[in-house]
Amino acid sequence: MILFVGHLNAAKGVRELFHAVSQIRDTLPGLKLVMVGDGGIQNELPGLAASLGIDSLVHFAGKAKAPEIARWLAAADVFTLPSYAEGCPNVVIEALACGRPVVATTVGAIPDLVQDSTGILIPPRDAASLAEALKRALNQSWDSSAIATKWQRGWDQVAHDTLDLLKYVQANYSRR
User: Fold this and answer.
1) pTM recorded for the entire structure
2) Which CATH superfamily is domain 2-173 in?
3) Residue 89: other Cβ atoms inside 10 A
């Protein structure tokens, strides 16, 4: 199961996602795509899915609150966010914290979060690259525990990092 969580608009790459799923559907028996979210082009997407022949593979879950999103993440094999632009998307952090590999675009802070051991990065607006990355991610064996703990820090580490940052600021930006 591939999971998308976000606002259903063109800038999130949802059209490319549908085209990508249509390209890999025959090579991945049992493939499902779950779309969590609403807004934007949500009324267009069922027709696009039907025109691509993937309407039986796509489930529109609608808008969801955090506990339901967590359940979807726990059920997913791969999380995807093929956006054209992002800042630091919480949903990518949440997917990684749940131990899910992420297939996402090289925009915003996503490349800082997703590395070879935690997912696959692709260029935005490229359905063919997205299709190949999703297929690869679904066929690859991932260590969900390693993904979930990749960015995990304890209080000692947070305190140490904060002290280092304060020392750096003091040394480099204090008035003299």
Assistant:
1) 0.87
2) Glycogen Phosphorylase B; (3.40.50.2000)
3) 21
